[in-house]
Specification:
This protein has 143 residues and is α+β, with helices and mostly antiparallel strands. It has a single domain, classed as Beta-Lactamase (2-Layer Sandwich), CATH 3.30.450. It is built from five helices and five strands, in the order H-E-E-H-H-H-E-E-H-E. Strands 2-1-4-3-5 form a five-stranded antiparallel beta sheet. A hairpin with a 5-residue loop joins strand 3 and strand 4. Helix 1 packs across helix 5 and helix 3 crosses helix 4. It starts with 5 loop residues before the first helix and ends with a strand. The model has no long low-confidence stretch (mean pLDDT 96). InterPro entries: GlcG_carb_metab_protein (IPR052517), PduO/GlcC-like (IPR005624), PduO/GlcC-like_sf (IPR038084). This is Heme-binding protein. It comes from Hoeflea algicola. Pfam families: HbpS-like.
Length: 143
């Protein structure tokens, strides 16, 4: 398994924020978690509102918790709300079930972490996460 290094984490963030600037998005906040759900790196653009670390982390944490991107979790919230209620309860409310939480996979498809982005629409957040992950030479799995 490839480790998700600090250098790769920072490259993910840099590329994700660049994509946000290219798309003229609202101020973004980006967190990279390792496979155990621990923060590797976080950056919040000037003008980003409060609680952005918690929201970005919740998207990434949720993806890690179920082994699928937060887009999958969002679909489950619509079709199986009881599942998300239970998941939220057992996680202590840490999971944010909207797109923008993307798994990071290595070349062998092993999950080595997750990226969570918040600040613009969930779809745009996810686009930036995928761009960042791919710029670091890793595989993005949005669910």
């Amino acid at each position: 398994m490839t480790d998700l290094t600090l250098a790769k984490s920072l490259k993910i963030i840099t590329a994700a924020l660049a994509k946000g600037k290219e798309l003229d998005l609202k101020p973004l906040s980006v967190v990279v978690l390792d496979a155990g759900g621990h923060p590797k790196a976080f950056q919040r653009q000037d003008g980003a509102s409060m609680m952005r670390f918690e929201i970005a982390s919740g998207k990434a944490y949720g993806a890690l918790a179920v082994g699928a991107g937060s887009r999958w979790l969002n679909a489950q919230a619509e079709t199986r709300p009881h599942f998300l209620e239970g998941l939220s309860a057992v996680s202590g409310g840490k999971i944010v079930a909207v797109p923008g939480g993307v798994l990071v996979r290595d070349r062998k498809s092993a999950i080595i972490g997750a990226v969570g982005i918040t600040g613009d629409s969930s779809d745009n957040d996810e686009i930036c996460a995928i761009t960042g992950i791919e710029a670091a030479g890793l595989t993005a799995d949005g669910g």
